[in-house]
Design the sequence.
């Protein structure tokens, strides 16, 4: 959400400069606890985030990318507002086919950023859930029960972008991590309102920014 990028810039960063407004995909660079950080919307779905992260990596030299977004929980021990770090991202997308690999690629987070997230969460007393998510090309699935097959494999939640981010990062040999706040549950059908999302995402935003402010070697 481009407006989430604006929210972060206005509420968490100082000395902010807007570096992008093309297609209203807002991007800002500022300071958080003395460290320079950029925040930008990436749109919805794998094609959109794939385009923006490719350009950030290859045209602007970005080496560390942390996605923050929402997800739908698939496991009974996940509740609204829980924060998930995606160790890996299953997918039903054909995005990786462009590389003509002789099999199925397994998109994963970089250990550096995943470890950093876990250590920062522990320091901040945030109960971080770590595991696999599924990146889906469909939001309104023709088979409303298909998620249960992923859940049976232990997948924590569904979202729409992480696999493309991880594939782009792997090919470019840079670091990437996707963080999510549970905004709805596939089991209970509970859903955060728009206002509740804004409040709930603050903890996830702070976790990501603290990772930037206090990098672990």
Sequence:
């Amino acid at each position: 959400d481009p407006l989430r990028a604006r929210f972060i810039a206005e509420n968490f960063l100082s000395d902010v400069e807007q570096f992008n407004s093309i297609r209203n995909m807002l991007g800002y660079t500022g300071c958080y606890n003395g460290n320079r950080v950029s925040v930008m919307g990436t749109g919805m779905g794998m094609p959109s985030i794939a385009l923006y992260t490719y350009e950030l990596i290859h045209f602007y030299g970005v080496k560390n990318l942390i996605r923050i977004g929402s997800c739908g929980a698939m496991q009974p021990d996940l509740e609204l507002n829980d924060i998930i770090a995606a160790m890996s991202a299953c997918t039903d997308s054909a995005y990786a086919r462009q590389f003509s690999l002789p099999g199925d690629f397994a998109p994963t987070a970089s250990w550096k950023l995943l470890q950093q997230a876990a250590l920062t969460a522990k320091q901040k007393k945030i109960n971080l859930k770590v595991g696999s998510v599924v990146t889906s090309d469909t939001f309104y699935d023709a088979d409303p029960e298909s998620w249960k097959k992923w859940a049976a494999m232990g997948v924590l939640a569904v979202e729409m972008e992480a696999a493309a981010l991880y594939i782009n990062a792997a090919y470019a040999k840079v670091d990437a991590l996707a963080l999510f706040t549970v905004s709805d549950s596939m089991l209970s059908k509970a859903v955060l309102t728009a206002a509740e999302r804004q409040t709930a995402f603050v903890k996830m935003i702070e976790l990501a920014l603290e990772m930037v402010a206090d990098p672990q070697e």
About this structure: The CA atoms of residues 63 and 174 lie 5 Å apart. The chain has six helices and eight strands.
